[in-house]
Amino acid sequence: TRIVYITGDGRYLLQGKLVDLETRTEITEDRLSELKMAVLSQVGDDSMVVYAPEDPKHTVTVFTDIDCGFCRRMHADMEQYHKQGIAIRYLFYPRAGVGSDSYTKAVSVWCADDRHAAMDTAKAGESVPVKTCENPVASHYELGQQMSISGTPALVLSDGEIVPGYVPPDKLRRALDQRFP
Known about the structure:
With 181 residues, the chain is of the alpha+beta class.
């Protein structure tokens, strides 16, 4: 996703960051975050694999790859994220692309009778039975491409900011509390 500014007469085009010097706010980044959240809001929880505590204080959407080591580490800490009051909503982002082994594993998790059990098994590095069905994996991957996701895990906060990489549960909770009091 890229933002460009064009003058009303079409003569000038600005591609890059636009900053309001009076308020010291970066207009471009704010607008990009809005656009990302608008696109992400069209993806319902019913097309994600959601792990949530009973009464979450924060929700983070995570682009994940079944075979990513740091994604597996994050998943292994799920109980701790829940103790911190953080819900995790997974979108599949097989880094090797559509048609890869990671893609097949993601589809198999989605098509399993129990997605949570299949995700837990796959994230533990174990095999899940290969299954196919109608699934959102390719659309999740495309969404990640549109949002310029370059690695996993990629955490999307509720304001559209993308935090790359694994963040330990207690550190994530502190950052979320500070950002969203």
